[in-house]
Design a protein that fits this description.
This protein has 14 helices and 11 strands. The chain has one domain: Aldolase class I (TIM Barrel). By secondary structure, it is of the alpha/beta class. A 4-stranded mixed beta sheet has the order 9-1-10-11, covered by helices on one side. Strands 5-6-7-8 form a 4-stranded parallel beta sheet. Strands 2-3-4 form a 3-stranded parallel beta sheet, with helices on one face. Bound molecules: iron/sulfur cluster. The site of iron/sulfur cluster (SF4) has 11 residues, from loops.
Length: about 375
């Protein structure tokens, strides 16, 4: 590959003229571009797309179970049934858990589980139906594409039918998890039982066709190469060209503790910030880049707002999956804390619902740009 002709200036020129960046540009941004030049370019792109606004939502994560047949090498959350700490909520327990947080003003239930060996597909439909029937005003985002794939396997139904039944029960959108790295060589080593790269993409494509918005992620910092990361972004960009259904891209740094890859060092903060910035520049057709503070830590998530991120995810209440890998963060934060963090970074906090309708702009004390 000849990257001689590529420079920060050539990329700035492309961005100025709205010309799409190539794979080689992406590799240059990752491997050679000056860190602060990269930040400036990504921040300028963020400003073009979302001005001074930074989004967050008030949500509650419901992790139905950690009992999982998949046991991916990078996961600290999954358990066998007999393992200490293994749990599985009944539909009533899931409902009661969600109900207990409704009065705190949540606008989203975020429901994610594991690939449980015994639960039937009807169990998941039941969980969604109960929550939706009682709280129709609260958006339910739930089940990654790999869970949808698993539901199709255990039920014998098509992916389209699984998604349709969940949608009819009240599911509003899909989170972006399970993408890991969209490369089947890597997936077969790390998570051989999960949906393949193409199956993951096809499930999102089908959800988009059914009118459901989804998010997309990338788990990085394990065995993948920089080329894998850039190719992953390009696959997402390609699908987005076809469907327009992705709302946000969420880069997720791998947390090695308590996983089968605990010998790998955690990514550096510089890598985390570079990945946010590169994704902002490469994913020109995905509107939002989310800094998932649970994994990044709040200080890095705050700095990432100057590297192209425009969303700090949600208040969460009690996160379990990343904290199984000893994520060095709180399991949830208050809305006021979120507002304060965004304001102190010089941006306007905007509480949004799951599908990015703005519910409240907290612009007091922040200078609006002309
Ligand atoms: S990442 Fe998900 S599918 Fe893989 S072991 Fe963990 S809970 Fe199971």
């Amino acid at each position: 590959m000849n990257m001689n002709a590529i420079s920060a200036d050539s990329i700035k020129e492309k961005l100025y003229h709205g010309i799409r960046l190539t794979k080689e540009d992406g590799l240059f941004l990752y491997k050679e571009c000056d860190f602060l030049d990269l930040a400036k370019m990504a921040k300028a792109q963020k400003k073009q797309l979302s001005g001074s606004e930074v989004y967050f939502n008030v949500n509650c994560h419901i992790n139905l179970s950690n009992i999982c047949v998949s046991r991916c090498k990078f996961c600290a959350f999954g358990r066998d049934k007999e393992d200490e700490g293994a749990y599985s909520m009944s539909p009533k327990e899931a409902f009661d858990y969600g109900s207990a947080h409704v009065d705190s003003g949540i606008t989203e239930f975020h429901v994610v589980s594991a690939m449980h060996p015994d639960r039937q597909f009807s169990y998941y439909v039941d969980v969604i139906s109960r929550l939706h029937a009682a709280y129709p005003h609260i958006h339910i985002q739930g089940f990654t594409a790999v869970e949808i794939y698993y539901f199709a396997q255990i039920s014998g139904l098509s992916v389209r039918r699984v998604l349709t039944e969940l949608k009819n029960a009240g599911l509003g959108s899909l989170p972006g998890g399970g993408a890991e790295i969209l490369d089947d060589g890597i997936r077969s080593g790390l998570c051989p039982h999960k949906a393949s790269s193409q199956e993951w993409l096809d499930i999102h494509g089908t959800a988009h066709e059914l009118g459901m918005k989804t998010n997309c992620t990338m788990l990085y910092g394990h065995v993948e190469t920089i080329e894998n990361r850039v190719e992953h972004m390009m696959l997402l960009r390609e699908l987005q060209d076809q469907t327009g259904g992705f709302q946000a891209f969420i880069p997720l740094p791998f947390l090695p503790e308590n996983t089968g890859l605990s010998h790998i060092n955690r990514t550096s903060s510089l890598d985390d910030l570079r990945t946010i910035a590169v994704s902002r520049l490469m994913l020109d057709n995905i509107e939002h880049i989310k800094a998932f503070w649970i994994m990044l830590t709040l200080p890095i998530a705050q700095i990432s707002l100057d590297f192209g991120a425009d969303d700090l995810d949600g208040t969460i209440v009690e996160e379990r999956i990343m904290h199984a890998a000893n994520a060095n963060t709180e399991t949830g934060i208050s809305k006021n804390h979120m507002i304060d963090l965004i304001k102190k970074s010089g941006y306007i906090p905007c509480e949004r619902d799951t599908v990015y309708n703005i519910l409240h702009r907290y612009s007091e004390g922040i200078a609006e740009e002309a």
